[in-house]
Amino acid sequence: MNIDLWLAFVFASVILIAIPGPANLMVMAYGFRHGKKAALLIIHYFWERI
User: pLDDT tens-digit profile of 1-50?
Assistant: First the structure.
């Protein structure tokens, strides 16, 4: 495997892992707005729905 191709793959993987999904963004925004306890309740709510 070419080193340039491997580095491009690693870079793309890191970028995709670092970007949070919509549920994570909602929990973070809710936590910033209402506090840690409210964010934990939202996480619990999402966990129960799975």
Answer: 799 999 999 999 888 887 878 878 888 888 899 998 988 888 888 788 76
Q: Is-above-0.85 flag for pTM?
A: no
Using an 8 Å Cβ cutoff, are 23 and 46 in contact? yes
| Residue ranges in the chain assigned as alpha helix (H) | 3-18, 22-34, 36-49
**pLDDT tens digits along 15-26:** 888 787 887 888
Q: Which amino acid appears at position 15 of this protein? A: I
The domain segmentation of the chain, as residue ranges, is: 20-50
Alpha-carbon distance of 36 to 48, in angstroms, equals: 18
- Identity of the residue numbered 20: P
